[in-house]
């Protein structure tokens, strides 16, 4: 974007539905965008398409990424998916608990961010709450394997 002239540098039209969120990687010259149908990764400065992250199967409202390359997506139905930035592998799925006294329809996640440590997620949700999710300090290699082998993602040339 040329801020002085008020003109955009590029217009990216790869999404088939409205774009609801965007996040930039804290150390890579890349960003991700979310729409109701999928998440896309891009490379700066020209906005070169890198890959789709598919499988959230809900209307994705928000994205955040930490310095360790964990991308989180939050959706209208309260689901949150954690992705490996580099491979696009969806390694964990969470369901936001609804505040007691709220209806199940109030399970949506509207925004998400990581704190400065990168180990806690903070969300704003449809049940009128802000929730802080903390990394599980009791996790072991048996309960949370780290030597997973993601499927090779074939990238299409555009």
Give a verbal description of the structure:
The structure is a single chain. This protein is mainly β and about 160 residues long. It has strands at about 20-25, 30-35, 40-45, 50-55, 60-65, 70-75, 80-85, 90-95, 110-115, 120-125, 130-135. Strand 10 and strand 11 (about 130-135) form a beta hairpin. The relative contact order is 0.13. The mean pLDDT is about 85.
Low-confidence blocks of residues: none
End-to-end distance: 22 Å
Strand order across the largest sheet: 1-2-3-4
Task: Summarize the main sheet.
Answer: 4 strands, antiparallel
The amount of beta strand, in percent, is: 35-45%
Order of helices and strands: EEEEEEEEEEE
> How many strands?
11
Output the structural class. Answer: mainly beta
- Please state the CA-atom Rg, rounded to the nearest Å: 17 Å
Helix content: under 10%
Overall shape: it is globular
Total number of helical segments?
Answer: 0
Average pLDDT reading:
85
For the structure shown, list the relevant keywords:
four-stranded antiparallel β-sheet; 11 strands; 0% helix; globular
Overview in brief:
The protein has 158 residues and is an all-beta fold.
Task: Describe the secondary-structure layout.
Elements: E1 21-24, E2 30-34, E3 39-43, E4 48-53, E5 60-65, E6 70-75, E7 79-84, E8 90-95, E9 109-114, E10 120-125, E11 129-134
Antiparallel strand pairs: 1-2, 2-3, 3-4, 5-6, 6-7, 7-8, 9-10, 10-11
